DNA sequence: GAGTTTGAAACT
DNA sequence: CAGTTTCAAACTC
């Protein structure tokens, strides 16, 4: 939604919750409940888990709401999405709810929501309640949500000893005025050494990235930091406090940088998207969009992108001698199944459900991106579901065979 | 810290 | 698309 049109971009709130607090939401299948992750989000090494809650969020008293529902498969009902800590860079665009809600209603709803959470509410819900950079900070310990500008929110965060310092922003930062973007420390990484510059606007297709991952300084010497060899560049950020030489990944060489970005996107339109979906929540933690090609590391060293992202290798990988497939807990599940103590359904672990839902969501977003008709989008999602189901069935039979 | 190994990215 | 080269991070000593 364009900023500054006087309407609110509402409907997104999130908080940190513990690993065990995965909240389920009604999936499109209607008959079951699914957990959902967002495969396009980026990794943040953190132990907690985020949930995005789409639903009515009160704006300032003088504001109005309007619908941002951008795809027919999204629901107006509040949706709790299990979201991996690694996954935050930008929320699902356009999930929003049209009607306004009285602040008291909101607070009651929030209380109900937080009452289901076991973790003490030291964390903060951050809502982008307008495209113009206004946010609401909601600490369930506090009686009222606090409406702030991004800048003041940042100050509030910094001054609040009880709050985590890793507040992130919901809402598309590229929609904010440039000054606010520059001034907004909410966009900064937890790792203060990492500068989280704004990505190239979506029109230049890097824009879905909004990296919050801690990032080490790069040491590039020959790539000018303008190739994907450079981690900073690959993350969509400019180099800062790096040990690179002859760096062109900075504002000084913005033209070259843009050309390099275009070049990368020309080779691979998804070059700046996260390769990993899912997260470090235990068990199977996600999947690598492309898969690794390791040959000698057994996928058990950080050379392996899957291993490094703390995710398991999948059929997408072309690795040789892979040992990065089952951990002990999943072995336990497998053994129970093989021993006949559990039904085959037990292999459909929460992680698998997460992965399936993630795939479906990815397809939905793809359909949205391609401006497909609702029926076509539905078809694509169902098609993906069928594909996932096939893989699950194959896995079940493979387990039986062992 | 220097040298080696590794696999992704880039190139042909 | 496959093979090769380049590159920088991960790793070892």
From TrEMBL:
> Does this entry carry the keyword Hydrolase?
no
Principal location listed in the UniProt entry: nucleus
Compartments, as annotated in UniProt: Nucleus
Q: Which UniProt keywords apply?
A: Nucleus
Record's GO cellular component, any one?
Answer: nucleus
Keyword Zinc listed? The answer is no
Recorded hits in Pfam families, A to Z, give: TCR
- The superkingdom of the source organism is Eukaryota
Any single GO BP term: regulation of DNA-templated transcription
Residue intervals passing through the bilayer:
none
What region holds the CRC domain? 214-327
The family note in this entry says: Belongs to the lin-54 family.
Record protein name field: Protein lin-54 homolog
Q: Which organism is it from?
A: Sparus aurata
Classification from the root reads:
Eukaryota, Metazoa, Chordata, Craniata, Vertebrata
């Amino acid at each position: 939604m364009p900023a500054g049109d006087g309407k609110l971009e509402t409907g997104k709130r999130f908080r940190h919750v513990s690993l065990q607090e995965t909240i389920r939401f009604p999936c499109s299948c209607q008959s079951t409940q699914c957990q959902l992750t967002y495969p396009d989000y980026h990794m943040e090494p953190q132990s907690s888990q985020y949930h995005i809650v789409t639903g009515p969020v009160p704006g300032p008293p003088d504001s109005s709401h309007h619908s941002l529902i951008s795809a027919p498969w999204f629901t107006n009902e509040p949706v709790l999405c299990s979201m991996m800590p690694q996954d935050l860079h930008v929320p699902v665009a356009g999930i929003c709810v049209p009607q306004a809600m009285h602040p008291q209603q909101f607070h009651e709803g929030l209380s109900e929501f937080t009452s289901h959470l076991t973790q003490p509410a030291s964390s903060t819900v951050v809502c982008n309640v307008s495209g113009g950079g206004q946010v609401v900070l909601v600490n369930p310990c506090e009686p009222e949500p606090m409406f702030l500008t991004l800048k003041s929110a940042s100050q509030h965060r910094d001054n609040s000893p009880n709050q985590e310092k890793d507040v992130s922003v919901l809402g598309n930062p590229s929609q904010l005025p440039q000054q606010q973007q520059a001034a907004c420390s909410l966009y900064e990484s937890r790792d203060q050494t990492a500068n989280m510059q704004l990505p190239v606007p979506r029109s230049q297709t890097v824009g879905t990235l909004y990296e919050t991952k801690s990032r080490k300084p790069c040491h590039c010497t020959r790539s000018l930091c303008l190739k994907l060899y450079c981690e900073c560049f690959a993350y969509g950020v400019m180099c800062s406090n790096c040990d690179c030489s002859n760096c062109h990944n900075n504002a000084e060489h913005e033209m070259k940088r843009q050309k390099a970005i275009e070049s990368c996107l020309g080779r691979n339109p998804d070059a700046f998207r996260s390769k990993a979906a899912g997260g470090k929540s235990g068990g199977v933690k996600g999947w690598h969009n492309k898969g690794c090609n390791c040959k000698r590391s057994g996928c058990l060293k950080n050379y392996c992108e899957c291993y490094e992202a703390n995710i398991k290798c999948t059929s997408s990988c072309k690795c040789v001698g892979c040992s990065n497939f089952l951990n002990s807990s999943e072995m336990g599940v497998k053994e129970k199944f093989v021993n006949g103590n559990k039904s085959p359904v037990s292999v459909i672990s929460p992680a698998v459900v997460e992965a399936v839902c993630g795939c479906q969501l990815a397809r939905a977003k793809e359909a949205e991106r391609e401006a497909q008709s609702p029926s076509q989008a539905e078809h694509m999602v169902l098609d993906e579901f069928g594909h996932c189901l096939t893989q699950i069935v194959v896995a079940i039979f493979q387990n039986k065979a062992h």
